[in-house]
Each structure stands twice: as C-alpha cells, then as structure tokens.
Write a structure and sequence with these properties.
four-stranded antiparallel sheet; alpha/beta; TIM Barrel; six-stranded parallel sheet
Amino acid sequence: MKSVDRVLAALYHEEPDMVPCLWAVASGLRGLQDAVLKRGLKLPGDMVNVGSVLDVEVVERGPDYEVLKSPFGDLRRRSYKVEYGYIKLVKPAVSSPEDLDGLEPPEVSMERVEEIKKVVEAHEDYFTFIGHESPFDSVTQHLRGFEQFLPDILGNPSFARRLLEFAVKPQVEFAKAVIEEAGVQGVWLTGDLGDRHGPFISPKTYREVLYPWDRMVVDSYHKLGAFVFLHSHGNLNLILDDLVEAGFDALNPIDEAEGMSLAALKEKYGDKITLVPQPSTYKLERMPKDEIEEYLASQIGAAAHGGGLIYYGVIVNMPIGNAECYVRAFERLRRYPVRF
C-alpha cells in the first residue's frame, strides 16, 4: 500500500496495512537532531509537510536565537536557550485598533505556489499537506498577542472579529491556491486552545467567537477536497464536541499529561474524527528504555482498531539509544491487524 493510500484509509476510518505516521525530532533539540543524522537513524513517514502559508523571514540571527518577521509585519523571537525552543512575540502587528486600518493583508504569491507544486510532485506517493496557524493563533501569534487578544474578545468583540477576519482570510486564500494548483491533500492548522487546566476561553465564548472562523476555514478546504488537521495542546474536553462539529478531520497531539485520554476519545469520537496522538513529552523523556515498547503498544492498541489512527512519533529529549528503540518498536507494532 502506498503511503498516501495508507493515510487516506485512516482518514476514512478504514484499516490500512500499517498505522500511517509522520515522525520528527522535537524542534529546538539541535544536539539530538545532529545525533540522529550522525547515527543514520531513518525516521518512517507517510506524510510530507510541503511548507507554511506564511513565508516568515529571519531578520536577525544570533548563536542561540532568531528574530522572525511575518508578512503581517510582526516580530517574534525564537530562543534556543531552552530545550524545545521558545517563540515570543516581541512586536505585534496591531498595538491599537487604529493600527489595523493601516495594514495591508499579505497577497497570494503564485511564484511560491509553483515552488510548492514542485515539492508536491516530488512526493506523489505520499500524503502532502501545507500548514498555517489556526484563527486563534493567527491573531495571538502575529497581530495582537495572547495577553491582548483575550481581553479584546470579552471587552471589544467587534474588534476581535475584525482581527480574526484580517488574519484568517489571506491565509485561506493562499492555502486554497496551493490545494487547487499544487494538489496538496491536507491542511494542518496549529494553534493551542488551552493548557492542562482547560481551554483558554469558555465553551460559550469559543462557540460565539472562534467556532464560526474554524468552521469557515474547514468548509473552505473541504469544498476543494482537502482534509483538515488541528494541532492544539491543552485539555480540550469541554470544547471537543464543538471541534468535531466544526468539521476537523483529525486532532493532534492528545497529550495524556494535559488530561486527554486517547482511549476515551476513541470510544466517543472514533467514528467522527481521526486521532493523531503524539507521545507525552513529560512521560517519554523520563521513560526507561525497556518500557518504551510497552508504552507505544498502549497508544496504538487504544486507537488503531477500525482505522482512524495516524501516529505522530516525536523524538524528545532522550538518549539516542532510546530514540532508536522507539523508532524500531513502532516499525514492529504498526502492522495490521493489531493484536494488542
């Protein structure tokens, strides 16, 4: 079975020949990334990220940091002093409502679309997807900032909706061009809606303010035949019904350390949304080598039956020997029929 067919089977809630997957070394772990390359450790994968909607420019670089500028005009600082990298918004694009009136939205670059098309054509046997930030993260990470946008939602909802429209529409237009011209099969939205305590906003506020935009984005891509993935950390149990109703095809990372139970989600939503679990960083980086295979088997066993599972293997801060064990265990356990 080709990789692309394997992923499509999972998204249609059918059992493929193997659990489809994508793998990565956690962002910011430069030493571990080098160790993986040096060991020649081949990471499995059925999905290929062909790029990001926002063409971010590095405007300053130091030994342990980068300053990034997006097409919206904001500046963010990525620090590598901490293990997994850390991005902080240092200059939002919109400091006051008046600033929004003077901004020009990013335009679709057909030159970039053609560049992405070449990448897609080079990976015709794989499921290809393009990424952009969710409506919530588009505003908090670029236009306004997290600390400013939450008060906007409650105190100035009309302004909050203007921010969402300005941030979302140009990204959707670019992604639609990539789907139509380059033929990508999916769009991966990133945007954390909560932490381990729960969503950042109430379910009522999510439904009134953010849900219409999530639904619009999903519907726009579904009309073109593309699947939509949502990457959101946090305990999302209070808004999961709404996320499923919004039409997302797949959910990631489902972190048990944040109160998300893979088995419970499979039981309740397994026929409605494909689950894309990652290992719990907190648990995996502290796990003895001889417990890795059992942990991985528990994840696959909880959600593989009946399809609807794509595994996202992330190598976290762990010895290279443990990383090798993790990858090889997955290769042994991923084959259907799953018997554990």
